[in-house]
Amino acid sequence: MTSPAAPYGYPPAPQQPAAQPQFASQVPVEQTTLGHALRSEWTKIRTVRSTMWTLGVMMLLVVGIDLLVVVPISHDDDPSTPVLAAGLFGLMLGQVAVLTLGVLVITSEYGTGMIRTTFTACPQRGRVLTAKAAVFFGLSFATTTVACTITALISNAVVGGREVPSYYGNGTAGDMAGVVVRNGRTAASGSEWLGATVGVGLYVALLGLLALAVGTLLRHSAGAITSMIGVVLLPLIVALFLPSGLESTRNTLIRYSAPNALASLYHIPMIGDGDQNGVRQLVILAIITAVALAGAFAAISNRDV
Questions:
Q1: What's the pLDDT score for residue 171?
Q2: Domain-located, residue 276
Q3: Are the beta carbons of 167 and 59 closer than 8 angstroms?
Q4: Contacts of 260 (CB under 8 A, 6+ apart)
Q5: Superkingdom of this entry's organism (predicted)?
Q6: 185 three-class SS
Q7: In a domain, 16, yes or no
Q8: Closest CA to 83 of 172, 170, 196
């Protein structure tokens, strides 16, 4: 295409480029929502091997140790042990696997650098953390509750229904305090069933959610896992070494430690008169977890990757 002739003494007019054809994308553009982030995080957590390993180990420890404990109890003639108590021992170790998974949900992406890809796909970092927390909490709560329900059913089938000799009384005093007796035989109350299944599942899931918040703040797997093990065990260890003059402090540390909270949900508190049911410890853990998550949201939104 030639440019039009210019008047004498003027430069020729510049040639205009030919118009390029416009193409419309055939892929529909959709506004991303929290639902997309939830589906993304669910795909991640169910396809990585760490989830299968940690939750598999948790199930094995909770159910396996319950079987190892409940068999000797079944041969013991002492009916003063609560029917569902055997499930506690496996859960003491199984909770560590849930804490580990809670940390790895966030720190594994920081370790591999995939967190940059995640934040590029979803620049709303608060939405990412919300999706991770929701997916992990639901999965850990469901898995722990199922494992503890299995142990409760096993314990009730093997240990429940033992005959209580008349010299033990009616289950309201002495060595039988806190043990339900129906028609002269041991049983588990509705509150015991609720605490030993849904209660402990909720407590362990909250601990895992706290581990997720700590992992978000520290961005380091080993450091966050070590910190969470300290949160679980350190209050009880410190209490055991306190002098007798600090008895009130020692009792407070024991009462609100994670092992005693789980024991209270099974209606076998380490200290106290047996009236503890773990509800107070559950509420306190929920408050602590909420505060830690608030700090994690603030940190992830205001700092560089």
A1: 47
A2: yes
A3: no
A4: 236, 254, 269, 270, 271, 276, 281
A5: Bacteria
A6: strand
A7: no
A8: 196
Contact 263, 195 (CB under 8 A): no
Q: What is the pLDDT of residues 206-262, one digit of tens each?
A: 999 999 999 999 999 999 999 999 999 999 999 989 888 888 899 889 989 999 999
How far apart, in whole angstroms, are the C-alpha atoms of residue 284 and residue 20?
65
Question: How does 47-60 read in b/e, with b if 16+ C-beta sit within 10 Å?
Answer: eeeebeebbebbbe
Cβ neighbours of 268 (radius 10 Å): 19
Number of structural domains found in the chain: 1
Q: How far apart are CA 213 and CA 211, in angstroms?
A: 5
Per the CB < 8 A criterion, the answer to whether 115 and 305 are in contact is: yes
Residue 163, classed as helix, strand or coil, is: strand
Confirm if 188 and 82 have CB atoms less than 8 A apart. Answer: yes
Query: In this predicted model, what pLDDT tens digit does every residue of 30-78 receive, in sequence order?
Result: 677 889 899 999 999 999 888 999 999 999 999 999 999 888 877 766 6
Whole-angstrom distance, CA of residue 241 vs CA of residue 20: 80
Within-domain flag for 211: yes
Spatial separation of the C-alpha atoms in residues 220 and 227, rounded to whole Å: 11
Q: What is the pTM of this model?
A: 0.85
Give a yes or no: residue 164 inside a domain: yes
